[in-house]
Fold this protein.
Amino acid sequence: MIGVEIIIGIGVLLVAIITIGYVVGMYNSLIRLKNNIEKAWANIDVLLKQRSDELPKLIASVKGYMKHEKGLLESITKARTAFLNATTMAAKAKADNVISGALKSLFAVAENYPNLKANENFIQLQQRISGLENEIADRREFYNDSVNTFNIRIESFPDTIIASMMKLARKEMFKATEAEKQDVKVEF
């Protein structure tokens, strides 16, 4: 009889070890996903900061040519200030959306100024900003992929049990605003 009790004890111990290992593995993978989302946002934040640092140079090169577009330049400056003062991810995303829309308008309006379009500083800055915009778009896509994976995991069984114990909640994806979805009107 002692042999059967030992076998049952070993079986219970193995089940406990496997269960604990599974729970620890699930916990660690959820932490990894959560941290990947923070890393993805930090990567977006770095690019948004770089773009923000380039904006004063772009505005300075454009000012002399675009005397009639003062409101547009002011809106870019205000949006940049809002971005720099933003402390939350949502506030930064909102300011970023305003900057993106204003930059689209700026580049569209620049078409009306042949001397500006030919200005080497403006061309370089426009290319730099356009490159940053493309990188930001790529990073937003990676961020959204990370958020989607995280949200699926915390809502799937049995991960949802561990996620609720960890108090993990759904994350919001980065979304384009209605203004960003509109085409920029170019009038000649």
Notes: Confidence is low (pLDDT under 50) at residues 184-188. DSSP finds seven helices and no strands in the chain. Residues 19 and 25 are 10 Å apart (CA to CA).
